[in-house]
Design goal:
Blueprint: H1 2-16, H2 42-59, E1 64-69, E2 75-77, E3 80-81, H3 88-94, E4 102-108, E5 111-118, H4 123-129, H5 135-142, E6 147-149, H6 153-161, E7 166-167, E8 174-175, E9 181-184, H7 193-198, H8 200-206, E10 213-216, H9 218-226, H10 230-253, H11 260-273, E11 278-279, E12 284-287, E13 308-313, E14 315-317, E15 320-321, E16 324-329, H12 336-355, H13 362-380, E17 422-425, E18 428-430, H14 443-459, E19 463-465, E20 468-472, E21 477-479, H15 488-501, E22 506-509, E23 512-515
Parallel strand pairs: 1-9, 5-6, 9-10
Antiparallel strand pairs: 1-4, 2-3, 4-5, 7-8, 11-14, 12-13, 13-16, 14-15, 17-20, 18-19, 20-21, 22-23
Helix pairs in contact: 10-11, 10-15, 12-13
Length: 524
């Protein structure tokens, strides 16, 4: 019945308007045509992964072992799993997306061994869930030479606990069980809720080990992953380019959208169309007052002309995620008040970028952003005392975070910047409707509220965040999101041009609004 209903609806659409093929309408010139995905030979990929494994081994102490477990499948509902995503560090060293895999690296007497426990291909399972790696395919992807059937992993663990040497049944591998230190990915502390969930298996396994020193491998990987290699930067840049295109396409169509979810759909359609693995985090598309909520993910409110739309989205490609925010006017033109708030945020971003170079600390950059916003809001009257914490009422988060295989990537925030680090530059101002009402009831706040109330009413419900992805270079910084319009003038100019070139038409079909298939013609 569902299939029949869909066919009837599809026939109505066909009758309502002739469908044009994808080749009928070229992409608007104003829309970025992102470059193709990066390509690497087997030799290049294997060399990159081998270099990473060598760096890990170099960081390990003598007479030690590293054990990495693959991610567990996550249940969505009943017998349906979420899309599988490999544990970052295992993927970082192997490039494999197979569940049930375990990587073991040992270091003893100057010798390094690398062993991968990999599930054997099961034809019946493949018929239901798709192809698994063969031994040859896993070797080709990872460059690893020693593979053991995952069914022997428990036997290896048994010999490890007994401090005996494990020998694979086919004689392909031998792993000494006498070791002084075992590295596992573990929660940072008992209070680390996220780590306790992600590294549950490792945490439980660590409690079964006796007579050895168990070390958390997370700091080791955080240090190694902090500096991105040229290989990694190509992957990350591609994720950013996909996201840039998605942002541009949303700017082009937002004037014709009626609901946030329509803009949201344009973004994630672009992600899928460009073969992104997924999004790096749930997309944030908020219009008007919704732009003042940092993690607004519902996308269920109307898109209203005259208001700002804040869109914080990031495509993930080969485990590397972009994180890009733009705030722009639905009708293509900023009002005076919107422009005043926007310009302060823009100026803070610029000040941070100019100060970025090797040796500078993240804390210094954060202070520069806060000082710039403090000065700007003081001029507007939303801050009455620059030496107070009033700026924190409106700039309610930090400057940004490290970026890479996680949207909030690993790395020490106390470390001075080095070339190859990537971070987000994302100051913001949020004039929430209830912000003044929620301040603590003190004499100082009462006087402050009375003074700023008239000014607050002018800017109420304006939320602005601008977020760009920044690569630290030897001499300064590179804007990895540099192709995406950012200044007021560039956004207004781009939206005026792109909206005219967008081949968008809508037709009403049985009371609903459907975008004619001509919109698909813009995608090549």
């Amino acid at each position: 019945m569902k299939t029949l209903s869909f066919m009837i609806l599809f026939a109505v659409i066909l009758t309502a308007s002739p469908i044009r093929s994808f080749a009928d309408v070229s992409a608007p010139p104003a829309i970025l045509k992102a470059p193709p995905s990066p390509k690497f030979s087997d030799t290049e990929r294997q060399a990159e992964l081998a270099k990473r494994r060598a760096a890990v081994a170099a960081a390990m102490v003598e007479n030690s072992m590293l054990i990495l477990f693959s991610a567990e499948p996550r249940l969505y509902t009943n017998d349906v799993d979420y899309v599988y995503r490999q544990e970052n560090n295992l993927y970082y060293l192997t490039g494999l997306k197979q569940d049930g895999a375990t990587l073991v690296i040992t270091k003893s007497g100057g010798n390094i061994t690398e062993t991968l426990f990999l599930p054997k291909r099961i034809p019946v399972r493949e018929a239901w869930e798709g192809k698994m790696y063969s031994r040859e395919e896993a070797m080709k992807v990872s460059g690893l030479k020693t593979l053991v059937d995952a069914s022997e992993r428990d036997a290896f663990f048994k010999t490890l606990k007994a401090k005996e040497t494990f020998s694979a049944k086919d004689g392909s591998a031998a792993i000494a069980g006498t070791t002084g230190t075992i590295y596992l990915l573990l929660p940072d502390s008992p209070q680390d809720r996220d780590g306790s969930r992600e590294y549950r298996v490792e945490n439980e396994f660590s409690k079964e080990l006796t007579g050895v020193k168990v070390e958390n491998a997370q700091p080791m990987f955080a240090e190694l992953r902090h500096i991105k290699s040229p290989y990694e930067l190509k992957m990350l840049q591609h994720a950013i380019d996909i996201t840039t295109e998605a942002q541009m396409r949303s700017m082009a169509m937002v004037g014709r959208a009626e609901w946030e979810y329509q803009v949201h759909a344009e973004v994630e359609y672009t992600f899928r169309r460009r073969n992104a693995d997924f999004w790096g985090y749930p997309s944030i598309v908020g219009c008007g007052a919704n732009a003042t909520t940092l993690h607004y993910v519902e996308s269920q409110s109307p898109v209203v002309k005259g208001q700002l739309l804040l869109m914080d989205v990031g495509a993930e490609y080969e485990h590397y995620t972009a994180d890009v925010t733009r705030t722009y006017p639905v009708n293509g033109k900023f009002t005076k008040e919107q422009a005043e708030i926007y310009q302060i945020v823009f100026d803070a971003q610029e000040a941070v970028a100019k100060a970025t170079k090797p040796g500078v600390s993240f804390a210094q950059l954060s202070q520069i952003a806060r000082d710039t916003i403090n000065d700007g809001l003081f001029k507007l009257g939303l801050v009455t005392d620059k030496n107070s914490r009033q700026v924190s009422y409106w700039f309610i988060h930090g400057l940004g975070h490290w970026l890479g295989m996680n949207v909030h990537d690993v790395g020490r925030y106390g470390a001075p910047l080095k070339a190859g680090m990537v971070f987000t530059n994302e100051p913001g101002i949020y004039i929430r409707e209830d912000a003044l009402d929620n301040l603590p009831d003190t004499p100082e706040n009462k006087a402050y509220k009375e003074k700023v109330r008239p000014i607050f009413e002018k800017y109420k419900n304006i939320g602005v965040r601008i977020e760009d992805d920044m690569l630290v270079t030897e001499t300064g910084v590179e804007w990895m999101t540099g192709k995406l319009p950012r200044s007021i003038a560039d956004i207004e100019s781009f939206m005026a041009k792109a909206s005219k070139e967008m081949p968008w038409t809508a037709r009403s079909v049985r009371g609903g609004t459907l975008v004619e298939s001509a919109v698909a013609g813009m995608y090549r």
